[in-house]
Amino acid sequence: MKTQEVYILGIESSCDDTAASVLYNGNVLSNVIATQKIHKQYGGVVPELASRAHQQNIVPVVDQALKIAGINKSQLSAVAFTRGPGLMGALLVGTSFAKSLAYGLNIPLIDVNHMQAHILAHFINEDGFKKPEFPFLAMTISGGHTQIVKVEHYFNMTVIGETIDDAVGEAYDKSGKILGLGYPAGPKIDALAQLGNHKAFTFTKPKVKGLDFSFSGLKTAILYFIQKQVKENPNFITENLNDICASIQYTIIGILIDKLKQASNSTGIKHIAIGGGVSANSGIRKALKEGEQKFGWTTYVPKFEFTTDNAAMIAIVGYLKYIEKDFSTQDITASARLKI
């Protein structure tokens, strides 16, 4: 029997990255991302500017993805797109484009949950990267989300813990703003933390019941600490920047690993996967590896390019749904607060 040839175009436009990817039977042929740099001057993503940039970027990004993949749009089996969650104006651009393209080509349309995609990015065929075994626990950590999800199968997921206020990525960015590091601050704090002493300063971990997270109190504690120290020594940040970053990162990672440990103990699940932009953090990756020795975990970390928002993760969900013939209708709409 001849193997079915499935080409999926994935489109991602949930926030400030316009992305398109082509997958062939689960293998990445192209993964193109147009990053919107205009938001840096505002210290965060401006929704209206994001949606306008998506309108400008989506056609050339999709065109480039097809060219790099070496296929014509007529060869596509289906179009997958991010339905939500995300910024409504940004989502509408990708949703409208995907619906129009699928309709024009008379091929299936597949809607994708952005958070599921971060988790299922682990199932992209990639040499050197193992795929999680079911059931597993997935921790999705990004600028907008912090969740622990119990994954029993591709589309059988249950959120068992999530932030009750700010996401972990926001804690990084707000801390970076306090320290004058600019936006986005996560990668900068990570790099500086590797040069500092994580025991130099102590920040209290928020006490939250169950498997939920809280980061608003930590942000406030960091702000008050810095204000107090700068009042006593105006050069405090400059003289202690590496140690401050190391101490902040150590505290954040401790919060995440403590909750993962609790989730693993309560469910009995030892397979742990991470996803989302903050999963690119070197400290978190190191802590997960240490968890294999300390707690008997088997950990799964995606390829770097599949951690931040990208369209390959949308396309792999599209591929998995295509196999199950789980298609959308043309009256599908974007959903800014879509849940798993």
Give the overall average pLDDT: 93
Distance between the termini: 36 Å
Strand fraction equals 15-25%
Count every beta strand, where a strand is a DSSP E run of 2 or more residues: 10
CATH topology of the largest domain: Nucleotidyltransferase, domain 5
Largest sheet: 5 strands, mixed
Using the CA coordinates, give the radius of gyration.
21 Å
Instruction: Give me the secondary-structure category.
Output: alpha/beta
Uncertain segments are none
Strand order of the largest sheet: 3-2-1-4-5
Principal-axes geometry comes out as globular
Q: Mind telling me the CATH superfamily name of the largest domain?
A: ATPase, nucleotide binding domain
Q: What's the order of the H and E elements?
A: EEEHEHEHEEEHHHHEHEH
Q: Helix coverage percent of residues?
A: 40-55%
